Amino acid sequence: MKNILKQQGIALLVFVTILATAAAAVTVTALYRSSQNVQISRDKITAAALAQAKEALIGRAVTDENRPGSLPCPDTNNDGTAELFAGTNCPSYIGRLPWRTLGLPDISDGSRERLWYALSNRFRDNAAAEPINSDTLGNRPIYAPNSQYDQAGTLLTEQAIAVIFSAGDVLAGQNRIAANINNANHYLEKLNCPGASCRDNTAGTGPFIAGALFDANHNPLLNDQLLIIQTKDIIPTIEKRITKEANNWLQAYYSANFYYPYPAEYTACNHEHCTGNSSVCRGRFPRSEASGSANWSPPEWFRNNQWYREIYYSVGAGSLQTPAGVTCANTLAVAG
Q1: Contact in structure between 231 and 160 (CB atoms under 8 Å)
Q2: What is the Cα–Cα distance from 110 to 74, expressed in whole angstroms?
Q3: Distance (Å, rounded) from C-alpha 241 to C-alpha 245?
Q4: Which of 168, 182, 209, 294 is a plausible cystine mate for 223, CB 3.0–4.6 Å?
């Protein structure tokens, strides 16, 4: 009888152990799934914040009245406002996203951190910068890792106009106390620096690299998430805007003069001079009109950014003040 009771006790103990193990497994699974759900939710918040910032920056560039395509300087004191120029340059080409300047709410990523932002100096909103038109390219290199352990990565583009960063959680070596709130080194990461394979998200010029990246022991080295703005995100929309506005200028000119301005010769159209020529019927869009004809002066931003060099312009004989000796086609045929 005692043996039977002893066996039953052992069986009960084994059963309780199995139940405890199963319960622990269920608890671990539930915690893992809960952690996964939290991370997914945070990633969604981050993705939405990055997309909102990118949309605002593109909108700002496309609609700018004085320098279409330009973007504000980064915010270096975390007040949401773009910094003023130091001479003709931004004080820094990396800093916080100037959400207030862009008319955004105070957005943050899934880690409740404000976004960071790097800008190509070619697209700063300063007249001393090179013209912004169809030929202007960004100059910030971006690398994309081939795996979670590829610290060098593969070059994605060398022509980024701007980069928006989500800093993610704090990593080893970072200290996000109030004194470091404007120090990119405590929010963004760099790898293999200095050296040829340096990837530096803390520098305004890069080269930048997207995360997440780990060492051989799967310790996190980089968790920055990046969203890139390239020429193709901005320039085609500006080209549509300029085409529409140029047509309005031509119609207004025609209404006042009953003819269109002369085109400018291709070879005579340089950085400062692109004057309408009374001996040609097609060429570039004129920056200024031929001597002795009615006043023609597109807006200053159009001239300063040399958009006139980017536009093919042709007119029919009945549409311009055709001088003697010049024969233009009465109609224009457009193929395609």
Answers
A1: no
A2: 21
A3: 6
A4: 168
**What is the token pair recorded at 58?**
């593109």
Q: What is the largest CA-CA distance in the chain?
A: 130
Q: From its phi and psi, is residue 192 left (phi > 0), alpha (psi between -120 and 50) or beta?
A: left
Q: How many helices (H) and strands (E) does the chain have?
A: 3, 12
Whether the CB-CB separation of 88 and 107 falls below 8 Å is answered with: no
In the beta sheet, which residues pair with residue 225? Answer: 166
Q: Are 155 and 143 in contact (CB under 8 A)?
A: yes
Query: What is the pairing mode between strands 140-144 and 208-209?
Result: parallel
Among residues 38, 98, 96, which one has the least CA distance to residue 71?
98
Whole-angstrom distance between the N-terminal and C-terminal Cα of the chain?
Answer: 101
Give pLDDT tens digits for 259-302: 888 888 888 777 667 888 877 788 899 888 765 566 787 888 99
Give the whole-angstrom CA distance, residue 87 versus residue 45: 37
